[in-house]
Design brief:
By secondary structure, the chain is an alpha/beta fold. Helix content is 35%, strand content 21%. Strands 1, 2, 6, 7, 8, 9 and 10 form a 7-stranded mixed β-sheet that branches. Strands 4-3-5 form a 3-stranded mixed β-sheet, covered by helices on one side.
């Protein structure tokens, strides 16, 4: 049996942070992994890490969109229409999405080869982890032919977008907890005009209030729960070699 790899959970707290801060921390964690592959005699193998945070308002664009003229026009329009939100082109796959207060952003930084995971199975693991987290609020979420996690065929509650370099993961999942959903009105979320964003609080307000009403930092608490579920799934993958 493979040796268990404990997942280290880092939550950047206590308040919302600029996207650039989260990106910088992620960059350091990924670089450590890459350096350990390049110079293993000098840089020890890092610990698998889940980085969680809550961003100030920001619209993020997928890496391929920077070569698309229409997307870049939208990029400039958003900066004028929603001045309190920044706009950033990222290295992840996928289309335009929004991050902001009331949303859990979770970036696992792991080596897929350590867990014998393909990129497809890894994305599925992120989606399944999110679905299990939502079950704790009595929500029956699902996956569809489109990436992410959905409460119905048109109601999206979580976005998934990842980047891989030498099997090291970055970016991850964004789960709408108590997000201000009107921010999504400014974009065609993930390139799907018929879809709309929802959140845990909107879908089940009483349950959200019951579980999180007295919690000092609900997003950090969600991050803790997500870390526990992801650890279980990674343990299972190491033990059985399949999802």
């Amino acid at each position: 049996m493979a040796t268990r790899r404990a997942l280290k959970h880092i939550h950047i707290s206590p308040t919302q942070i600029p996207y650039s801060t989260g990106a910088a921390v992620q960059h350091v964690l990924v670089k450590n992994y890459l350096d350990s592959k390049r110079i293993p005699d000098i840089v020890p193998r890092p610990v698998p890490t889940l980085l969680t945070m809550e961003f100030l308002p920001v619209y993020t664009f997928g890496r391929r969109q920077q070569h698309d003229e229409e997307s870049m026009l939208k990029f400039e329009t958003l900066k004028r229409k929603v001045p309190e939100a920044t706009s950033v082109v990222t290295m992840r796959g996928g289309q335009t999405t929004f991050h902001g207060p009331g949303q859990l952003v979770a970036y696992p930084i792991i080596d897929l080869k350590e867990f014998n995971l393909s990129s497809k199975c890894y994305v599925r693991m992120l989606e399944d982890t999110t679905i299990e987290l939502l079950q704790g609020f009595g929500l029956r979420a699902k996956t569809t032919e489109n990436t992410g996690v959905w409460l119905s065929d048109i109601e999206k509650i979580a976005s998934v977008g990842v980047h891989l370099r030498r099997h090291i993961t970055s970016h991850g999942v964004a789960i709408n907890a108590s997000t201000i959903l009107s921010y999504f009105d400014q974009i065609v979320a993930c390139g799907l005009p018929e879809s709309r964003a929802t959140s845990i609080e909107q879908a089940t307000p009483e349950e959200w209030k019951r579980q999180m009403g007295g919690v000092k930092n609900p997003i950090q608490e969600l991050g803790n729960r997500l870390a526990d579920i992801l650890q279980e799934k990674l343990d299972h993958q190491l033990e059985h070699g399949k999802l």
